[in-house]
## 1
Amino acid sequence: MKQYMLSVYHADKGPALEPEVMAKSIRDVDVINAELMAAGAWIFAGGLHNDSTASVVSVKDGAVVTTDGPYAEAKERIGGFWIIQAEDLDAALAWARKATVACLAPIEVRPFQDAPPDA
Amino acid sequence: MPRVSDSEIERVFREEFGRAVAVLVRSFGDIDIAEEAVQEAFTVAVQRWPETGLPPSPAGWIITTARRRAIDRLRGDAARADRYAKAALMQAERNPIDDGPVQDERLRLIFTCCHPALATEVQIALTLRLLGGLSTVEIARAFIVPEATMAQRIVRAKHKIRDAGIPYRLPASTELAGRLSAVLAVVYLIFNEGYVASSGERLDRPDLCVEAIRLGRILTELMPDEPEVLGLLALMLLVHSRRPSRTTASGDLVLLDDQDRSMWDRSLIAEGQAIVRACLRRNQPGPYQIQAAISAVHSDAQRASDTDWGQILQLYDQLFTVNPTPVVALNRAVALAEVRGAAAALDAVDGLDFPEYYLFHAVRADLLSRVGRNEDARAAYDRAVALTSNAVEQTFLTRARNALPA
């Protein structure tokens, strides 16, 4: 088994979703979560607050400093993610296909570096 | 003792490289290990075969030698706590290679090389490298990119296959159609790059066409019941049969109408037409089969004036139904001009939105000149010349432009 991170990318600007569209999206995501758990693929998932709530901690001139705001100003930002385990990329992509339809947003699929210890 | 020449070993390399790599990828679960081991086995073969003669089964010899060498090397690496080496060794122990006839694993490898998670240019490079046995230098030269760029592209792709877990197996039947069309597209792109080089001084690079046809033959061998696989092979054979007459001795382009048809390769035509007939009997048409049928109609005509344009137009109508793209509509318009006249064709072409495609302007220029709108034709030729990077095509279009009446 390999582990993958499925990141949901949301456009920074653009019209807000209609309430009923949003409600359906949330329901669809719940269905995927239930399916992931039933399939034994679920490891973790979560949605994130808007990137205006982000803080960045970094080393500058030898001192650790904290700054307000997201690390990079980008047109798209991560709105949430899943960490799943899957047999191979095809299996992970199959989950991502469901996720992009449910979230109405592009999904980036990336493999984790280390295989889980029981593999 | 039979002597084995270098060209004989070269032939075995070309024919068996992909098969051997595929078997070893299956065994070790790692492309790099498989490729290196097969390379190494051929190095041994080059030293040994001239003395011993060809072994009874060269492919079996290569695979056995490669596997033994790879296992020796992996044991050394595994002793140094190399995680990949250990995993590959374990996989190899779980998947022993039978002593019986070598099972053909190339189909799995093709689907891995043409996986949709890899960019098209990467799919092409991997297919030529692993299945075709072309060296990185050869592939770089064929696509006119620096060798280092191509080497990096291939290395990155192999790492993505390994790290992202792109599987080495046949697609499920539910996704086979989509995955197969990606494989066929890769082979056809290789052929087309050979047919009209996207840049450079020469019109074509026939070695790429020959390689694409070889890959097409492998696919028909592996998937004899897929009509589109047959259709693609027939299409490539028929188009390639006209290669000797497509350019003059000095390298200038000759249009289909003006070609010396006695120069066409009759055996390629016969083979292509036989496949087209077999496809017609199956009656499961698809884009490649229809294009092959169109090409077969051209091959039937002894002289350009004998061409059955009515049938070609019907086939283009059918092609447009299954594949409604502007390129098909443009080609259909060329047939339409022969059946219903240049004015009707011009109407059809003007309805297309295709500002960046040089052939759109080239076809339009020809139609405009045929209805006597020479000023407009000149402008369209200028546009076409500006949009192609192939020197031979530029010369041809410029000449056509300058031949227009004032």
Note: Residues 74 and 82 of chain B are 9 Å apart (CA to CA).
## 2
Amino acid sequence: MWSSADVHLAVGHREPPFTLAQVDLDGGPRVLATIRPNGELPPGTRVEILGEALGDVVVGP
Amino acid sequence: MTPVITGVGTSGFGRFPTARIESLAHAAVIEALDDAGLSPADIDAAYIGSVFGPAGIANRVLAGVGLAGIPVYRIEAACASGTVALHEAQRAVRTGVHRRVIAIGVEQLSVVFDGPIVPEPTDPEGRSGLALPALYALQANRYLAEHNLEPSVLAHIAVKNKFAGSMNPRAHLGGAPPSFEQVMASRPIAGPLTLLQCCPMTDGAAAVIVADGATDTGVPILASSFVSGPAWEAGCDEPWSLRTVAAAASSVWEQSGLGPADIDVAEMHDAFTIGEILTTEALGLAEPGTAGRLAAEGVTALGGRLPINPSGGLLSRGHPLGATGLAQAAELVWQLRGASGNRQVPEARHALLETMGGGAAGVDGNACVVALLGAER
């Protein structure tokens, strides 16, 4: 987890609150992801890819 | 040939949905021409920054003030559009391509968006709902964790800039400034950023005339640098935009022979409070992790050692994207002339201008311009 932030704005089809994260994949690129369940995680937290929703990577602790 | 800013002008800043966008630009252009003591026939070329302005806006603006028929270039570089226009204008004069050039920025966001700017939906950021407040919030949370700081450190930037803006009659949010407690208690937007830590959506225009000869009130552009963001990817530990700002600043120091210690006043990109903190540090004006504290202690406030954003910044003067960089330049010209009234920074000789344009997927900002104005060393 490079960083994460709760978003309290409606953006496109997304209703607030939702949590976005920038995640450095092991040996791979930095990707934008949604955290499930909602909630910020400290930078450096290891997360796993839980799946995909609406074309987005979904991660969780 | 050192280019000299000989005239500046701006419209008022606010929400003007019933105005014609051309009329906003005309107010700025007419003031700048008058300030420079020039007529439209004296201008050789125009560079116009606008992000969401309609097609043909550049030529329509020029035609309405008697400037039609000269070479005109429209520039879109997100929030840095106006500053890139200024950079190109000074480059044209510095290299002898033109003698007198006008840079114009204009935006009318109130007729384009009902709320915040919607991210480009074909970008990964847009698809995922990463509006710009959220992009900056991610950087804020990373920064706060790296430096073991509390979110309250961000709020001091808003208090400082909104106080300065309360003394700027052209500011969008120029009313009574909020207290620290009010900034902290305003509604959450993204991560640690509250509403009063986010700039307003602003309509307005600004214009700057750059010429090849000194005048009594002219302000030399000692250096200017324009950097497009490199890829921002895994393994880069620096927050988004930091490397791009630092690269542009490094070039300006090299061009001018001056350094951060020579700067008396600065206008920089504070679309969100964390933006000013990161930029202050990337420019070398503060040690990493200290810019928020410097604001809290008054060092970067009006009356402090290095006032930053004496205009009120984007947080208070407002953020009419394409016009922002030129509004920043106008403020610094007034400061260097000693014409800023109750916002005046005493004995200002060197001023630093920075604007960051952001948003494109996967890169460390679309564009950043850093320029150094003031007396020759």
Note: The CA atoms of residues 156 and 347 of chain B lie 25 Å apart.
## 3
Amino acid sequence: MKIHEYQAKALFAQYGIPVPRGRVASTPAEAREIAAEIGDKVVIKAQVYAGGRGKAGGIKLVNNPKEAERAASQLIGTRMVTHQTGAEGVPVSKVLVEEASSVARELYLSILVDGTSHLPVMMASEAGGMEIEEMAQSTPEKIFKSYIDPAIGFQPFQGRKLAYGINLDGGQIGEAARLMTNLYRLFVDKDCSLAEINPLVVTADGKLLALDAKLSFDDNALYRHKDIQQLQDKEQEEPLEIQAHDWGINNYVKMEGDIGCMVNGAGLAMAVNDLIQHCGGRAANFLDIGTLNNTERVVNSFRMFVADHRIKAVLVNIFGGMARVDVIAKGIVEAYQQMNITFPVVIRLAGTNLGEGQRILAESGISFVQAKDFYDGARKVVAAAKGAVK
Amino acid sequence: MSILVDDSTRLLVQGITGSEGSFHTQRCIEYGTKVVAGVTPGKGGSKHLGVPVFNTIEKAMAETGANASLMFVPPAFAADGILEAIDAGMPLIICITEGIPVLDMVKVHHYLKGKPTRLIGPNCPGVMSPGKCKAGIMVGEIHLPGNVGVVSRSGTLTYDVVSQLTSLGIGQSTCVGIGGDALPGSTFVDILKLFQADKDTKAVVLIGEIGGTMEQEAAEFISHEMTKPVVAFVAGSTAPPGKRMGHAGAIITGSAGKASEKMRALSRAGVSIAPTPAEIGLTAKKVLERV
């Protein structure tokens, strides 16, 4: 789960990580008030989940409260398109109004869990402002890493090593080590999946300051962080994905095509989408129905397909293991009874209770295209989406 | 032969009295797996599905000689359950549970270092040696005893692949689901090492997916240390970057996480890449004909 920059900075402040003075505004008038309080040049920053907002015009430096109001009015209520969003962009409903900082150096700092060592790793670099991916490719030698022993936590010596690595000096060394220790404490306390300060700046007077703040959280750990759960801004998420979630379909991702897919299991669902593309079509979604054996989730998957006006055909591909094919079949029949399904549906069933599932579908009298295997299903649904089957 | 589980496996089920634990324990018993003990704290001394239930793993192992554990403990308590099994000296832990917090698994991995326990999963379908032992939630009937090892990050995609193999008459030595999490207990390399050493495994089918670098590490191992042929498929060519595709570990965060990069690395290591997920069985058949 992601949160906004202003929320991440509030958490930073709680953990003693220095952030610029500022507050979030929901209206241009509020932005003006905050700018007046700060009483100097301020930066107006659009609050969106997507990165790349600087290049997209989402960060504006202004000289006075009046300009702050105008800049905020140009952002609030618009949609921001960056390289990380789709063409439709994400809505801007809030801006962060912050004192402008005089920047001497831009650094990079982050923590994540490394999949190879199974340890949290603190990464620091002098190339702040760049994306870590870019850095890792162009100048990997400039990224300093420190793996953290979970039993003893982040230690001051690790902070010093990293701080010297990125050429801090004097009082900045101790300051940086404390900042890193605090960031690690936050990372662990809140079950973060990423804590990133990019850039971490050295100001003109030599102080460290988190100019940006990015936190994302482990979805599997949210159950023990009710405070974090409440921070989610659903407006920033894809509406179809929020809808799916509200209907109990947790593993739904919107894609760009016109073929609806309902599959059990994440790997199989990805493979189905790959196969559809191989056959010349494009999936409208990734949908792993999971293993809960109730018909409601099947019915709700069809509700998603009906709600999604791009859908031209649907492929159901179920390999029953934990999930029972007869329950899936019942769900499909219920879906046909409850809604007007106008698109062709291709069904491939295999696995647990297959015979019973086939009988339920056959006796229901619903019209569908049967597929004998995985490949057959993909070919038939692509043909159906192109209008070959009615 | 086979790896990890066989007819000498004496299985203990953690969380045997829960609904999933009960359902799948029954299926394992029906398949012929020797389920010798269950553990549910507070229910020790009772019997469930004819299996004696204990309060602690230590006691269950002492009294029944259990040598592998299959876990159905809910995510909030699962890491603790794994730690208990490691502490008791359980040689093999197979954790089915999906949704364990990553930082809990960091602790588990830390505790696991230097211990003789092997962990498979979490968030996996388990381990199956056809005709000998089913220690997991996979469908028993689609398997056929034979000489191809299967290792996969996926559950149902593996069922499809196994049924492709079986319908072509290609049996399996062992099928190992290493799970869809970002920090699996065992990696592709760990399992490939076992298949390489297993004299009855003649070839291996590897099913990867987007996210992480496990497939690249497998490619490295295959090119240097593996003499047996490997067939592979990596799911998620069409997955958009930055989106979690169901599995906690299936998210493209950098170019290394892409399916195309992984398939390129495997192909360079001499692995035969199946052109589509529907042709993994056929690709394995062609490779076996050359052996």
Note: The radius of gyration of chain B is 18 Å.
